Amino acid sequence: MSSFTIPLDEGNRSVSVPVNTLNDLSKDDLLSFPAFQIWLSTLQRSLQRQHHPSHEFNHNPYVLRKINVQSVDYFKSGRLGFVKLNAEVSNGNGETLPGTVFLRGGSVGMLMILQPDDVPSSNEDEKRAILTIQPRIPAGSLAFPEIPAGMIDDSGTFAGAAAKEIEEETGLTIPQRELVDMTSLALQSISEPKDGETLQRAVYPSPGGSDEFIPLFLCQKRMPRKEIESLQGRLTGLRQHGEKITLKIVPLKDLWKEALRDGKTLAAWALYNGLKQDGKI
């Protein structure tokens, strides 16, 4: 076991938070891990907000007292990939908040809608959506249906990551400018306080246990009907990275039924329909 401390700004003072780790994870490696950086800064902002008199916890604020790193996983490249930790968060009365966290960082999801170019663009019935069918061992599945998605790497933009994943998983090349960030667009429709929490402009599929956040993008493309049909059953993915993906083309109106077990697909479906109803897309 190794131990070190990390600085934390509590608003009116700076404190040192002890970190214990059961492996050889160094302080520098942890502090340079993007997922940890985002999680810690977001939590720090939320804890600071307790000092406002109107905050629910103002009379007895919660404090991050210790972080216990329980396990880490590295990618084949040697880059830190995942961290499981327990954050001890409690108030002056000893009341605690659940703090088991699986850090993996952000991903992107893409709702890809294709329409034959031999029908009017207003024809909703002819619109098709792309699903990927692939093994998802954490779900115990070898054929899990979902919209195209992938992890965000350490560089580039969310839109760039989305365009990259679209090409890798579908074989289609889509310019970034043709992608619509549905989560950011939807957030423009609601009023958020300037001193509110600094959550990512994304959906959080499992906030009770993971930091993962997913900006959801929309791409609508008109193509020759035969090209759309040729995508059905196509094998794609980066085989050298263990990706074994089969494409499935489904009517857009049936998307929610075809991939109802996948949270990001349902979120993308809801955002698309909500934004369309409001005339945003």
Describe the structure.
The chain is α+β, with helices and mostly antiparallel strands and 281 residues long. It folds into 2 domains: 2-103; 107-278, Alpha-Beta Complex (Nucleoside Triphosphate Pyrophosphohydrolase). It is 23% helix and 33% strand. The protein has helices at residues 27-31, 34-48, 158-170, 182-187, 225-230, 255-258, 263-277, and strands spanning 2-9, 14-21, 63-74, 80-90, 96-97, 100-103, 107-116, 128-136, 141-146, 149-151, 180-181, 216-223, 235-236, 245-251. A hairpin with a 5-residue loop joins strand 3 and strand 4. The protein is globular and about 65 Å long.
Name some characteristics of this structure.
about 280 residues; alpha+beta; Nucleoside Triphosphate Pyrophosphohydrolase; eight-stranded mixed beta sheet; six-stranded mixed beta sheet; 7 helices; about 35% strand; globular
